[in-house]
Amino acid sequence: MTPKRREMSPKTRSSYPPASPAAAKKDLFRKMSGAMERTFRKVAEDPVIVPRSIAVSRETVRLIPMEIESAEDLSVLLAAKALGLMQCMTKPERSAFLHESAGKVHGLLNKYSGASLFAQHDSEEREGIEEEIEAATEIDSFRVRAETLFRAYHTLCRDDVSLKIDDGDYYTTHWCPIAEETVHRAVIYARLADLTVEPAAKLEYLDGRTNINYQDWERLELFKSMRKVYARIADMVGHGMSAAIAIRRNATDLMDAHFSKGEDPDEKEDFVLYHQAKERFEYLEPHAKEVANLLITNGVLQSMATNLGKKFKLNVELVSHTSNPDELYRIKGPAGIFWKLRKSRDNKDGKYSSVEDLQDNVGVTVQVDGSFKDAWVIADWIRIGLTHQRAKFRINRIDIKDKENEETGYHAAHVVFDMTVDGVAVPCEIQVRTRETHEAAKMGKYQHGIKEAGITTEEHRKIMERVLKVLGIEFQLAQKQNELERLEQEKALAAAMEISKKRYMVKVFNRRKSRATFEDVEVWAKKGEVVGGIVALSSGFKSKIKVEEINGGEQPNGKLDLFDECPGNITISIEKGRGPGKETLERLISGKVITPEAVEAIRERLGEMPKKRHK
Fold first, then answer.
1. Of 477, 49, 433, which is closest to residue 238 (Cα–Cα)?
2. Three-class secondary structure of residue 40 per DSSP
3. Which domains does the chain have, with CATH numbers?
C-alpha cells in the first residue's frame, strides 16, 4: 500500500525529532503492534488460536536483536509481527488482516507523525518533510514484506516435515538459506517462536484441518528438525536462550504425544525404539538427578577443577555447552536417547545396539585454558580423583578416551564412568576441552547437534562457518544479554534472600574447659534451615555438641537433631569429644542445609577432616 502525500497541520510538520527519539520510536512501534493485535482478534475466525498466535508474534519480535533506528527497521519489525500473527490464519483471513492492519499503521503515522522520528536534527523544513514521506513509504511497505516473508515461511514449514533420508539435506533446506542470506532472518525467528510457544494449543488447532497441513506437527521429521536445527539456531542468536530450552522440551513432548497414540504400522521400529528410550530415561532419571546433585550441586567437580587449576597453574572450570551459563550439566532425555540409537541403527554402524550401550546419560563439560595435552592431563587427574573416591561415589568402572573427529576437527578427552545410586548404575561422561574447542563447539562448528545434523564434508563445514558469520552478531548479543539477565537474576535472588532470611538467636556454651563460658550469637539464615546449618554458622563441628530448643525464658526445652528444622531460639553445648563424622556432614549438604554460607562452612570442615577415621 503506497501512502498518499499527507497534508500535515503546523503542529505535525516539524522536521525535528522529539526529545527522546529512541523512546518515541519504541512507543510508536508499541502502538502499531497493539493495533495489529486488535485487528487480528477481529479478523481471526478461531478464538482458540488467538492468544497463542499473539504470544508467537510477541516472541518473534523479542527474538530479533534489532534497535529501531530507521524506518526500514520499523518496517521489518512490523512485518515480523504480522508473520507471527498469520501462521495459523487461512488465506482470506491473512488478506483481510493485512489490508486492515496497513490502514491502521498508516493512520497512526498520520496521527503521531511517526515518520518525523527519523528526520535529522539539522534538516531544513522542506527536506524534513520529504524524509517524512519517504520514511512513511518504508513503514507502509511492511504489508508487501509480510506477504513475502509468509511465502518463505510456508516453504520452510513444508521442508521441515518432508521425508528426508540423507542428513546432509538439512544443509540444503535449512542451513544454506541462512548462510547465503536468501531467507530473511525474520522467517527463522518466526519459526523459532512458533516451535517455542504452547505446542498443545497448536496441535489442537491443526487437528482435522487440511488447508494448512504443511504445518503438520505430528510428523517425526519435524521433531528431528527441532533438535537438529532450530534448538541450535536458538543457541546462536540474540535472546535465544529461553527459546532453545523450550524447543528441546517441546520436541520431547511432541514426540511423546506422537508415540502415545499407539503403534503406527509405518513406524513400527521407531515406536518400539522410542518406548525403550522412554523407559530407560524414566528408570534412570531420579538416579541421574542424584548423581548430578552429588557431582555438581555439592561442588565435587567444581572443587576438583579449582584445585587442579591451582596445581597446574591453568584456568580450569565447569562450563555450559549452550547459551545458558548456568546449565552445567544435562541429563539425556528420551528424545536424545531415541535419536542417538536411531542414527546408529540407520547407519548400521553397530555402535549402539541397545539403550544400555549409551555412556553419556549424564553429561558435564570442563574447559581448560591450554593445549589439548593440558586438557588430557586434567582429564586424567579427574579420573584419578574419582577413582580415589570410588567407594564414596560407588563408581563401578572409569576410563578416559581420546575423542577425535578428523572430519570436524573436534578433539577432546572424555572421562566415562558409571556411578551407582540405590543399586542403579548411571552412565556419566565428563568432556574435557580446550577453550578454543569449547568456544567452537558452543558456536556450532563442532556442536553435538550439528554433528548429528550431518557435518560430514568440508563443504558442510564451510556452510556452517558462513552461518556462524551471519549469526555471529546475534550470538554475541545473546552472550551480553544473558550476562545482563544473569546479573539481574542475581540481584533478584539476593533481594529474595533478604526477604527469605530469618534471625536465629543462639546461646553457645563451651563446656570443654573447667570453667564453662557462654556467648550469645545472632545468626541470619534461610527460613526453614535445619539445626545443622545453624550450628555450622555459629559453633562449628570440631567438637561434640548438644543442641536444645529454648521455649520462653532462658531454660532449654528438648534436645534437637541436626536434621530437624531449627526453631528461633536454641542453645548449643560444646562438650569434650569428637564432632559429627563425615557421613553426617555429607548428608547435611545433600539438600538438607539450604543456606549457601552454611553449606560452604560444612565443606570446609569436611576438607579439614582426615581421610580415614580411626574407630
1. 477
2. helix
3. 21-252 (no CATH), 267-456 (3.30.460.10), 500-608 (3.10.20)
